[in-house]
Amino acid sequence: MAFETIIGLEIHVELETKSKIFCTCSTTFGKSPNENTCPICTGMPGTLPVLNEEAVSLAVKAGKALNCTINTVNKFDRKNYFYPDLPKAYQISQFDLPICSKGYVDIDLDGKSKRINITRIHMEEDAGKLIHLEDEPISLVDYNRTGVPLIEIVTEPDLRSPEEAVVFLKALRGILKYGEVSDCRMEQGSLRCDANISIREVGSDQLNTRVEIKNLNSFKEVLKALQKEEKRQRELYQYKEEYKIQQETRKWDAAKGKTIPMRSKEESHDYRYFPEPDLKPIFIERDFIEKAVKNLPELPAERKKRIMESYSLKEKQVDILIGEKELVDYFEEVLSYGTEAVEAANWITIDLLRVLKDIDVEEKGIPIKASNLAKLIELIGKGVISRTAGREIFDEIVSTGKTPEELVEEKGLSQISNTEELEKIAEEILKVNPQAVEDFHKGKGQALGYIMGQTMKATKGKANPQLVKEIIEKKLKKFQI
Question: Is the pTM of this model over 0.70?
Fold first, then answer.
């Protein structure tokens, strides 16, 4: 029996505001537990929420970036449920009148383009964070995150594999980061994903019972969790027909490598939604939308197209640069110093990526100034240093922060490009290697490489390789044993 997988995603994205959605508390990550709190976000009696206008603006920007319709009339609702991380015992969210609807994201997988439709985007406040102590009968709660403005992006069940889901999430993250809607730092919870997954026989239009996997916060774990749940459901359908898939919420246990039941899946009526009495409906004027759109920066697809049209780069290389906004920003900054695009792209996608593997770029930044990389490329291009020496200097710049000129001087790595000096050295090498000269005249190509190697060794690698080759070839033709 052949099955296909059906996946829909609910993505929670923290908006990049300085204060929370209904109060003035800071949204700064990493503060001491419960430091960023006040009577409003902790739900004290007698307090009233006041809507943060910047959160609405960012939600509109997200909607436009994701090709949605902006609903000029929308409202907030109370979503009621009792849980320790929600001090009011209800969440202010949007139910039947969300701020955005009917959007899409186009993705590429294995050379094929596919459109993933977005059902809706709604605004809401984030909940707190529970810290479960190992081997202790208690949990701790940190309310710093409570009230941080969120948008929830809900897709149609258009995804057909865990791999496709990850490609979509990466594309979505790129759009939201480029659009300056959110920093999308998954390790800090700025972007989290709930995945709904079910399977059905190939050719069927029926949507079978789905399972929701909660709070996935890395691409790697999204992939693993969906693959495991997909396998579990296929086995239940194929080999254990006496068992049925239960509509439930499960969590991903990364250590055990499996999904674990949490609770039965709630339906919308379980939350007893009703209009939020403390907040008026939102009426968005056209001018407000136009202003938000005007402030929307160049998005990944547009930037890729411009770079492909402007520079002679391979598409795969451009995809690497575009993959992280910090990387492509850095690339274009290097170009601003007059650096040739292909050289800049090669150094960034090979040498820079090598050192970035162990660095949190978003937190610490790129460890070599764009001006220093541009100068390094210039020194190599002018023949002042060899490319090999350039790579050595590159690593030194990363570890010390010194300029290329300082390091070239300190290490004595300047290339010998003096023709007269190199001719003398080459002459001497030819005299002491008569067998190599004879082999060259007999048509043995490797003899030239040997002589070049001896010349470079004599100059301690400082000679300009291209100039050395030209001199040796010229002298070999005249040289008599």
Answer: yes
